[in-house]
Structures are given as C-alpha cells and as structure tokens.
Amino acid sequence: xxxxxxxxxxxxxxxxxxxxxxxxxxxxxxxxxxxxxxxxxxxxxxxxxxxxxxxxxxxxxxxxxxxxxxxxxxxxxxxxxxxxxxxxxxxxxxxxxxxxxxxxxxxxxxxxxxxxxxxxxxxxxxxxxxxxxxxxxxxxxxxxxxxxxxxxxxxxxxxxxxxxxxxxxxxxxxxxxxxxxxxxxxxxxxxxxxxxxxxxxxxxxxxxxxxxxxxxxxxxxxxxxxxxxxxxxxxxxxxxxxxxxxxxxxxxxxxxxxxxxxxxxxxxxxxxxxxxxxxxxxxxxxxxxxxxxxxxxxxxxxxxxxxxxxxxxxxxxxxxxxxxxxxxxxxxxxxxxxxxxxxxxxxxxxxxxxxxxxxxxxxxxxxxxx
Length: 370
Fold this sequence. Notes:
This protein is 35% helix and 16% strand. It is α/β, with parallel strands linked by helices. The protein has a six-stranded mixed sheet with strand order 2-1-3-10-4-11, with helices on both faces.
C-alpha cells in the first residue's frame, strides 16, 4: 500500500464549514466527557529528579487511551519518573492537543493516527515524533437493527462518523468504497449518507432517529448498543491480523532532544502499564473507569465498559504499517494528497526499553528518523 499522505486543504464546499485542517481533528471522535485545560491528578513525586522538574502528558478521557488513564491512576508513570512530577492534561479533540504540543504547553501525548500525521506534516516534520504505540482496535459499526439487518442494508442509510476526515470517517469511506458504493467525501452524500456528528451527541442522534447507525470508537459504540443498537462490524475484523493503530504516543521533538531521560521514563511507564493491563484485565478496567469518573464526574456504566473493553488491544507496537494504510485510505477517498512521512517515528528509546524487558523490538515500517 502507498505509505503516505500530506494534509491538503479541504475542497470547495467543505472548506468554509471546516476551519481546521482536515486531519488535525482526528480523535475528537474519541473524547468522551468535557475537556479540561488542567484537570490533573496530583501524585507526590518521590525519588531522584530527572532532567526536567515536570513532564506534561496529554491524553483523552476514553478507553482507547486507557494506558494513560491506568498508568496515572495506578502511579506507574510517577514511579518511573521519580522526583520529576507528572502532570496529566485531558483533551477532547485532536486539534487542541496538537496545538498544545506545538505551543509547548504539553510535552508528550497519547493521540490517534490522523492527528499524528497532520501534526507531523503541517510542521514539515519538525514538531513531533511517534515514539510508541498504545492501543489497537476499539472501533465498531453499530446500527439500528430494525432498519439494518446485514452489511448490504447499510446502502441508502444515514451513518454517523465523528468528523469530516477523522480516523473513523476515513475508515468508513474506505469500507464503503470497497462495497462498490459511491460517496462524495466532502458532502457525505451518495449511496450512503455520511453524517458527521460529535460523539457526545451521537447517542441522542441515534435515539431521535436522525441516524441509522454509526462508525465510532469506544465507548461511544457500546453506549449506542446500550441504547438498543446492534454491533454489525468490528473494524478490527477487516484489518490484517485484526490489528490497526488507534492510539500512538507522540512527543515534542524539542522535549525529546532536551530530556531523553524523561521520555524514556514515560515509555517505561507505558510498557509496564500495558503489561499490567494485559495481566489484570478486570482490575485495569476498574482502574480506567475510576480515572474517568475523576475526569468527567461519573464512571461508565457496566454495560458500556464491559461491552467496550474486549475490543481494545493494548500494545507497545505502533503498528506502523497500518498508519501507512490509514494514510492511503484517506488519499483514495479523495480527502488528502500524499505527504512525506519519512521520519515520523523514533522508536529507538522504546526498543531500548523493550530489549531491557526481554520483549521483542518493534518496527517503523521504513518511516523512522535517521
């Protein structure tokens, strides 16, 4: 598959309606709860301080960012950081997290593939690096079972995606094209009507009947199921090995250069958190939900989190080949031109840690920094 995409201006018609660059809004789809500029869990830093007094870690309050939620809740990151204070900052949308990274108000972030691509290409490859994976999967097509009983019934129906050009929007457009259906990517009109809807209001749109289904991430998909929708397709099932990147860890190149010891400490925390999650699924699920309660004021209901959790795989592997594929899908949908992605990954610190932990190293699919 072609490896790359370069962010381009939205074509006429959509340009006036979308003020921000196309892919920079990617994980607005994944935010669940209200954004807080500085809603930080305070944990005492103990031990020897590293080269920075504080590291500011951005993430989304959702289950596909559970590595950040659990690693913070259980104090795993802070233990690795010693006397360097961890400050976590939640975001609901890709644009604000990328802007915060570029402005230097956060140092490291958990974020999805599309804003990672956009943030890298918009800066000419100067502002960020992907330094690890975090999660795979956690995206589903859920539908009204009274209106849609099979995949072929999706034709002619109204399907919500979170945002024009975001990760799930691109995935649905690509899937629809593989069914032989024609859809104008900009307007969303065609053999299927693509209705761009913020995840926070998608459940209400479903209950009102204004959409017939949605291609959305967790926990939105399981929230719709709790409202009577039916899972029709798990996106993982259409990927090789049933894996695709949904969450990366990115870092400011400036911070990576100036504080490599802090970056390595955060990566050690991520690797240890993923290992703990995978070894203690029930405890990890409860830990993530406890952190979500702190961030949003209420936890996810049992029917929602129990339905969502099994579809997400927590992995250190950035699944770099699937980043290439997602970029290619956006190009094929007519939303983007090809960017130069060479250099977007720097996996050397991660592979150093994985080797020390006796784990296999991960690959960058030829897109690593020199």
